Amino acid sequence: MNRLQGLPICPGSGNTAVKTGVKNIRLLALLLSGGLISQQQAHAGDYQLGVGVLVGSQPHYPGAAQSSRFVLPVPYITYRSPKLQIDRLGASGLLAQGDGWTIDLSLAGALAVDNDDNLLRAGMPVLDWIGEAGPVLKIDIAEHWAVHLPVRAAVATDFKQAESIGWRVEPQLRYEREIYPQLQFSSALAYAHSSSAYHQYFYGVAPQYQTSSRPVYTATSGSSGWRFANGMTLQQGDWRFGVYSRYDYLADAVYADSPLFAKSHQLTAGFVVVRILKTGEW
């Protein structure tokens, strides 16, 4: 599933397309990994606040049969200080650094998914909000190129109770550069490996939820698939314009034989327009 790495945060709506988009578990990570926030350098404690509109399409979860189209209002927040950073790469706190490398405390998450709009999960428990935390090693390997090695533990919660749902490792090769003044391009190739508990939460089928077309399924640890994401951001004064695309290759994922899995190849795309309303130091 996709991460909620950094902000924006999307409020709900009564509109079906918007409601489905808000609850999509991979929506926000797609934006941020695609490079929709400016790379502009900031001094200690700088922040930006704004609002925008996001238009896109997104599978309910990796391998899901259904996708959603959505139009969403999106608050926009960035913050950068020597010890804390909230930006296009997520929310992180610096733990250690050296020549060409850093170790950050990386935070991520995902939104809940309503099964009313997902045929394969009909009658099953909803997928709760997910919170993830752990260290990430970032290594600069060449100009514009870096390797990120995050390891995160995951917790699912409905804000009344919480449960551990395992862990994820997601090595990433990243490329970022300014290809034209105020025009930023970023690309990421990532491979994900997750624990059996993590896969079971999304793709497992307990005996009480089996049907004639949905047999009992117990997930194992291993590959969660590959993703290739690209994004471009244009900064014009107080305006930010971004486009993104993402391709997921899931044929070799260990959960590919789950009855909740339907598609081995998925493509998502969208664009966002943001207006910066306030900047300052804090």
What does this structure look like?
The protein contains three helices and 13 strands, in the order ααββββββββββαβββ. The chain is mainly beta and 282 residues long. Strands 1, 2, 3, 4, 5, 6, 7, 8, 9, 10, 11, 12 and 13 form a 13-stranded antiparallel β-sheet that branches. Strand 3 and strand 4 form a beta hairpin. The radius of gyration is 19 Å and the shape is globular. Mean pLDDT is 82; it is low at 1-43.
Q: Topology, please?
A:
Blueprint: H1 16-23, H2 27-33, E1 46-59, E2 67-80, E3 84-87, E4 90-98, E5 101-110, E6 129-142, E7 145-157, E8 162-169, E9 172-180, E10 183-194, H3 196-203, E11 222-236, E12 239-249, E13 265-281
Antiparallel strand pairs: 1-2, 1-13, 2-3, 3-4, 4-5, 5-6, 6-7, 7-8, 7-9, 8-10, 9-10, 10-11, 11-12, 12-13
